[in-house]
Amino acid sequence: MSKPDIATLVKLQEAETEVVRLQEVLERVENEKNKLASRLKQFETALNENQEELERAQKACRDNELEIKTIDERIVKSNENLRNVTTNKEYQVLLREVDDNKKRKDALETELLELMDEREKSSGIVTESQKEYQMLEEQIRSEQAEIEKRSSEDRALLNEYLEQQEEIGKTLDPKLMDRFRRISKMNQGSAVTQASEAVCMGCFMNIPPQMYIEVQRGNELVSCPQCSRILYYGTIK
Ligand SMILES: [Zn+2]
Fold first, then answer.
1. What distance in angstroms lies between residue 90's CA and the mean position of ligand 1's atoms?
2. Cα 163 to middle of ligand 1, angstroms
3. Among residues 19, 186, 196, 197, which one has the fewest Cβ atoms lying within 10 Å of its Cβ?
4. How far, in Å, from the CA of 195 to the mean position of ligand 1?
């Protein structure tokens, strides 16, 4: 191995560091977007529940009103029949019927007042939560758009670094490229690091003296015995 390879590897590492950083940023952004979407979804579910509640209250009112109407018709009919009765017994039966129906109607009317009250409350809740939902939706949409804008810049940058790595890769021995990839994977995106005062700056372990001399000479690629990172000495640009 010759010295220029080290310089190339250092460039490759610089791009790798950026690639890993940007991938992490983009992943966080994706999580953030998902979190916002699920918050909106939760609110939507609550809104739907409120709407269902209102529909139930509306139906209860309608059912009650319909029953009152039926009873009214029955009372009218019983009153008509009262005019045609011939016996006292029939008269008593019909009178009781009218009386029972009137009682039932009273009870229904009392119930209807409560049901109407519930319907009104429920309607207020729906209106309120629709307003809140619209506000939240607007807020979340704009946050998501902002996130999208930022992350598209990061994605473009990530692609630049990936292309840069590909270009560098063309000039490197494929075996060396494989070695770089493998070590990078082991160390969360760090495959090449400086050795300073006989210490690996990647894992901060001491490098054996003979090995450190080889690193300083730079005639061959030396891996740290602890973390496997490829070591270089001094500042390489
Ligand atoms: Zn090390």
1. 108
2. 28
3. 197
4. 9
Chain centroid to CA 33: 6
Instruction: Report the chain's mean pLDDT, rounded to a whole number.
Output: 94
Ligand 1: centre distance to CA 25 (Å): 26
Cβ pair 94, 50 in contact under 8 A:
no
Q: 3-class DSSP state for residue 196? A: strand
Give the whole-angstrom CA distance, residue 212 versus residue 222: 9
Q: Which residues of 39-62 are buried (b: 16+ CB within 10 A; e: fewer)?
A: ebeebeeebeebeebbeebeebbe
- Check residue 180 and report its DSSP letter: H
Give 19 Cα–ligand 1 centroid separation in angstroms: 21
44: which 2 tokens? 């939507």
CA of residue 148 to ligand 1 center, whole Å: 38
What does the block give as tokens for 190?
């760090």
Distance 91 CA to ligand 1 centre (A): 108
Can you spell out the DSSP letters for 92-152?
A: HHHHHHHHHHHHHHHHHHHHHHHHHHHHHHHHHHHHHHHHHHHHHHHHHHHHHHHHHHHHH
Closest CA to 211 of 227, 193, 199: 199
pTM for the full predicted model? 0.73
Can you list the domains of the chain with their CATH numbers? Answer: 21-172 (1.10.287.1490), 173-237 (no CATH)
What confidence tens digit (pLDDT) does each residue in 82-112 have? 898 889 999 999 999 999 999 999 999 999 9
3 CA → ligand 1 middle, Å: 20
What is the distance between the alpha carbons of residues 113 and 183, in angstroms, rounded to a whole number? 76
